[in-house]
Predict the structure.
Amino acid sequence: MGNSFGQLFRITTWGESHGGGVGVVLDGCPPRLSLSEADIQPDLDRRRPGQSKIVTPRKESDTVQILSGVFEGRTLGTPISMWVKNEDQRSEAYSEMSEKFRPSHADYTYQAKYGIRAWPGGGRTSARETIGRVAAGAVAKKLLRERWGVEVLACVTRIQDVQVAVDPNGFTLDQVEATPVRCPDLAVAERMIELIESTRSAGDSVGGIILGVARGVPVGWGDPVFDRLEADLGKGMLSLPATKGFEIGSGFGGVAMTGRQHNDLFRNVDGRVRTTTNRSGGVQGGISNGETIYFNVAFKPTATVFHEQDTVDVHGQNTTLKPRGRHDACVLPRAVPMVEAMTALVLVDHALRHQAQCGA
Amino acid sequence: MGNSFGQLFRITTWGESHGGGVGVVLDGCPPRLSLSEADIQPDLDRRRPGQSKIVTPRKESDTVQILSGVFEGRTLGTPISMWVKNEDQRSEAYSEMSEKFRPSHADYTYQAKYGIRAWPGGGRTSARETIGRVAAGAVAKKLLRERWGVEVLACVTRIQDVQVAVDPNGFTLDQVEATPVRCPDLAVAERMIELIESTRSAGDSVGGIILGVARGVPVGWGDPVFDRLEADLGKGMLSLPATKGFEIGSGFGGVAMTGRQHNDLFRNVDGRVRTTTNRSGGVQGGISNGETIYFNVAFKPTATVFHEQDTVDVHGQNTTLKPRGRHDACVLPRAVPMVEAMTALVLVDHALRHQAQCGA
Amino acid sequence: MGNSFGQLFRITTWGESHGGGVGVVLDGCPPRLSLSEADIQPDLDRRRPGQSKIVTPRKESDTVQILSGVFEGRTLGTPISMWVKNEDQRSEAYSEMSEKFRPSHADYTYQAKYGIRAWPGGGRTSARETIGRVAAGAVAKKLLRERWGVEVLACVTRIQDVQVAVDPNGFTLDQVEATPVRCPDLAVAERMIELIESTRSAGDSVGGIILGVARGVPVGWGDPVFDRLEADLGKGMLSLPATKGFEIGSGFGGVAMTGRQHNDLFRNVDGRVRTTTNRSGGVQGGISNGETIYFNVAFKPTATVFHEQDTVDVHGQNTTLKPRGRHDACVLPRAVPMVEAMTALVLVDHALRHQAQCGA
Amino acid sequence: MGNSFGQLFRITTWGESHGGGVGVVLDGCPPRLSLSEADIQPDLDRRRPGQSKIVTPRKESDTVQILSGVFEGRTLGTPISMWVKNEDQRSEAYSEMSEKFRPSHADYTYQAKYGIRAWPGGGRTSARETIGRVAAGAVAKKLLRERWGVEVLACVTRIQDVQVAVDPNGFTLDQVEATPVRCPDLAVAERMIELIESTRSAGDSVGGIILGVARGVPVGWGDPVFDRLEADLGKGMLSLPATKGFEIGSGFGGVAMTGRQHNDLFRNVDGRVRTTTNRSGGVQGGISNGETIYFNVAFKPTATVFHEQDTVDVHGQNTTLKPRGRHDACVLPRAVPMVEAMTALVLVDHALRHQAQCGA
C-alpha cells in the first residue's frame, strides 16, 4: 500500500532500482489534452543522474515511453501508463549492501517491515522511484499551464550554510536552469557549486532547502478540513526522499511575529480582492486565495558518505560499512523537478475536486 | 469533500460553530475495546475554551455523547458516532462578520469557493471543528496504549520569542498539565503565561511551536512511498487550523549539517537494533525504526486581534474591521491535545495497515 | 470499515437499532442547494415502520434533524450531518436473541467476526441502518431533479408468485404511492397485499422484486472500467439488507437471445442519437447512453418467521428459536425508497465525477 | 478514474487494444509470497484468444512480464507491475469503426463522454483490458490457496438455451478444463460447443451464465454495511464486459419461496457451526459464514455479429454497419478466468481488511 497519490488525478508508481524498470499509471487525466513523450522527457532529463558535473554520474538515458492513454497525440481520459527501463544495473558494486544496513537509509526498516528487501541499488527506496512522479508531474504542469494559466516552479535557495532569499514572484525557469545547482542567484549558485564539489571531494554530503511556488492559482482550490491545500502540499513534499520539513508562507519564522504584524490585510486592487502582504502563502483556511503559493522544503544531507561508519548487519551484529560506487553529494538540484511535480499533482487534483463540487 | 482522515481507522468530522453541534464518525475501530465517554471527555476538557485564564472564556461544557458503536462498554467494530452540542451561540456579537472578511481568516476563501458561508462564529472554520478530531484521537490514544504500549504526547516549546529545548524522551503528561500553557519547563511556562497575558491585554496575539512525540512505536509502521509516516503526520498537523510548518527529527536545522554529522549510526543494544542518535526522528524511508518519533509544528499568531484593520467587505469594497467578543490570544495550549489526536490517528491507521499487509 | 459509500458524494452511516440513534454524514454536497428537513422527511416516512397495515407496527416517528452543513436554508458545501433518534427500545422483548442466533440473520457472522454483537433489535444489522441512506438519498434525488432534470423512481413488481411487468417509462410516483405495497398496477397491488396479509397471519414471510429506474440521465455518466455505472448500481443494491440479486436491462433473461436479437440499434431521432430498443438498460460500456436506466433487485423472504426453527446458541449448542415481537412479513414496500436512495447516490456521485474529469 | 479496484489489495489496470500493451499494477500484496510469471501465465492462457476452436483466432501470445515487486522469486510488499505487449495490431481491418458506432458496444458512449476514443480494436473497451485483472487474479488465487486454503473456481452452466445445474461443491478445475467451453458436464459441454459453432457459422452470437464459487472461506470476511462481501462480488462481476446480472445463493429464484422454506438453519456439525442448507450462498449480513460462496453471472450475447445492422456515424447520421474481422461468437469460456480473478481479488481484499480490523 501507499504507492498511490491523489484522488481524482491519481498516480500509482512502481519499480525498483534494479529490475524491469520504473513507471507510473496516471488515472483521471482529462481527455483531449495534447500529449507526447516530448512533453515529459525534459523534466526527466532535469531529474536524471549524469546531467551535470555536480550530480551522480550513473549513466542512464531515462527515456520515457507512453504505453497507453494517448491516441493520435491526445489523451483519451483512460489511464496513462508511462515507464522508463532500467539500464545501468551493476549490482555487484553493491554486494556488501545485501549484508549490512546503510546508516540513515531505509535498508533496516524495509527489512524489518517486510522481512525481505531488494538491496541492489536500494530497491524501491532508490530515488529512481521519483521518475514516475516527475513524468506524471509533467502532465500536471502542462494541464495547469494550458487550462488554468498556472505556473509551477521551484529552485534551490540553500545548500548547507550557503543561502539566499528568493522572492517567490521574482525568478524564472531560465534563471533556475542557468546553473546546474538550480539556484536563480548566479553568484550564490557559484558558491553552492563550489561547496558541493568540495564536499564530494571530502566524501561527504550536504542538504539544503528548495523553494516551491505556484503562480496564478485561482481563488477556491483546496478542501477543508483535512485536505487543505497546504496539508496536501505538505504531504506531497514530505513523501519525497530525504525531506525533513515543510513550511508554507511565513512558516516557522512567522512564529516570532504578533497577530497584528502577521495578518495579511485585504484590499481591492483593480477590482480584485488582494492581500497587501502574503504571509499566508497563498492559502487561507486550506483554500487558495489568489496570491502566489510558496513554501520551503528541507532536505537532509545525503545519507551515503564515503567514510567507514558504524552499523549492524542483517543478523543484528555490530560492524562497519564504507560505501563504494557513485552517489550524489547533494540531491537538491535533481530534487527541483520532483518538488515541481508533487506541487503540480496536488494542484490539478484540487482543481478537479473543485470542479466536481463547485462546478467551475 | 475533505472531511475524512485515515484509511482503515477513518474519521469524518462535521459541524459548524453555530448549529446543531459538532461531531465525528469513526469507522474501522477494532472491536472489544473498552470505551466510554469517560475515556474521551478529559481530552475535550483540555481542548475546551474557558479551562484557564489564558484561553478564550467562551462558556461551553463540550460534553461528548457516544451515539453508536459501543455496547455494554465495549466497541462493536461498527462506526462510533460522537457529538457535542453547541451551547453558547451569541451570534449577534458577530454580526459585522456577515458583511466583512476578517483578515487572515478563511471568510473570503470560503465565500469565494462555495458562494456561501456560515459566518456566525466562523462556521466550519471555527476551532470547534477540532472537537471531533480530539474525541476520535482519545480513542486512538487508548488503543495505542493498550494494544501496542505506545505513548503519544505533546507540549508547547515556544510562544513567540519565549522558547525552551525539550527532550522528546524527557517530559511527562503531568509536567505538561502542570501549567495552563502546557510547557513542561515550569520557569519557561511562567514567562509564556506572562507573555500571553500581556499580549491579550494589548489586544494582540502570538503563535509558537508545539513538540509532538510518540514513544514506543514498534519498527515497521508506515507505508512508502506516498504514505510515509512523516508524510501522513505532516498532513495531519498541517490540517490543523493556524499551522504553517512541520518538521520531523533534525528538520530545518539538519540542513546545516553534513552527512557524516547527520547520519544515525546503528548499534546492537541489548540484542535490539538501535541508533546512537535520532536525527531521523524515529522514521527512516517512511517507516518507523523503533526510536522515539518527534516533530515540531509551527502555529501562526491568532488572526483575530482587537484593533481596527483594513479589509474588504462581501461586495469587494475597502473597509475596516475591529473584532469584538472573545478570542484566544494564543491557541497553542488548546492545540496540544489536537496535535496528540492527529498523531494518534495517524499511528493507529498505520498500525492497522501494517497488520493488514504484513500480518503483525 | 465499510460504512461509507461514494467517492465525491460520499455518505457514512452509523447507528444501531438500540442506542443513541442512527444517522449519516454526507460529504461533498454542492453548495447553495436549497435544503431543509422537509425535503427529507417524506422519504423517511415512506421507509418508516407503522406507515400502513402491511408493515411492521414498530412505533417510531423517525423524525430527521439536520445538524450541520445547511445555513439559512441552503447547503454550505460542508458535511451534512443528519440523525434520527431511537425511540422504541423494548429490548426485553428480544432477550432470547442474546443467547441464540436467528437463522438466516447476521447474528452468527457478526459474533464470529467481531467477537461481540449488539443483539437488541439486531444492532447494526437492523433495517434502521438504512435511515441514513434514505435521508442522504433524498438530498441526492433533489439534486438530480433540480440540476440535471433526472427522475429516480422504484416500485414493487413481484411479491413471491404475484408479479406484473412494468414499463420502466410507464409509471409515476403517484401510482407507486397509491397503495401501501408500492406496485403501480392496482389490481396486482391488491393481490400482493392479500398475499402479504395471509403470509403474516401464517407467521411466515415473502420476498420479491423491485424495479428501479432513472429517467433523463444525460449521456456520459459512469467510469469504466471498474466503476461502471451498472457495477456501482449493483453494489449499491446488493448492499441493501435481504438482497440476493441484481440485473440491468435484459439481465438474466437476455441470456436466451442471440446477439442479432439483443443488440440495441442506433438511430438519429430528432437530432439525437437514440437506440430503438433498450436491452442495454441505459448503460453501454459502463457509461449512460441517454436512455432510461432500469434494473431489478431480488429480495429474499424476511428471515424472521414466527415458527420454532432449529438453530445454535452462542456456545455452539443445538437449540431452537421461536421469535417474538413484531417484524415485517415483507420488506419490499419499505425497501422502495431505499432502492431509490442508492440509485440517486450512485448517480450524483458519477455526475460529479464526470464533471471533474470531463468538465460538464 | 475508475481504473482501480480493491482497497488493501488494490489493482490499477491500463492499456488499449492497440498501443504499447495492457497491464496492471498491484499494490498491497503481502511480502514473501513465492511468485513468478509461471504462476500467472496459465490463467492468461485460459483467457487468451486462439486457445481453442470456439474462441476468436486473434493470434497473440499474451506473454506476461513481471516488471517490479518481486525479488529473487518472492514478493517484496512493493507494487507488482505486470504487462503484456500488444502484438496483433491490424488496425486497417477496423477502419470503418472510426466513423461508425457499433451497436450495443461502447463506441458511442465513450465518444460522447470523452469527446475522443481509440477506435482501433475498441481501444480501452476491448476485452484485452481484462488481461490485467486475470494476471492480478492469479496472484490473489495463489495467496488464497497458500495462506487460507481457499479455492476459487468458475464454470459455464448455460449457453443461450443449453444449461445444466452444477453443484457448487461438486466440480473440479480438471472437469472445467476438460472441454474448451469450460462446462464441467461433458455431455452438456458438447451441446454448448455445437451451439457456439453453429451460431458462429450463422454470423451470430450467444451469451450465457457462469457459476463462480469460493470454497473454504473462513467465517468473518466481509465488511457491512456497504462493503458486504456480496456487494463487492457483485460489483466485481458487473465490472466485467458484457455482464448484465449477478445473483448470490438463492438469487432471483429465492423470491418464490417463503421465509420458512428459505431460511438456512444452524446446526452444530462436528463442533462447528454449519447451516443445513445454503440458500444464503455463504454470506449472511455481508459476512462469510463458512459455507461455500456461490453466485451466477449473466453475460449478454456478444455485440459483434456479422450482419449488416442499423447504426449512426460519428456525425449522428443514420447508416449501417457490417463488422469484418474476427470476434468471439461466445465470450463465456474465456470469461471463466475473469470471474475467478475478480472473485479472488475481492476475497483477498476482504481477508486483509478483516486482518486489519479484527487481527486474524
User: Anything to note?
Assistant: The interface with chain C takes residues 7-8, 28-31, 77, 224, 352-353, 355-359 of chain A (CB under 8 Å). Residues 4-358 of chain A form a domain with the Chorismate synthase, AroC fold fold (CATH 3.60.150.10). The longest helix of chain A spans residues 332-358.
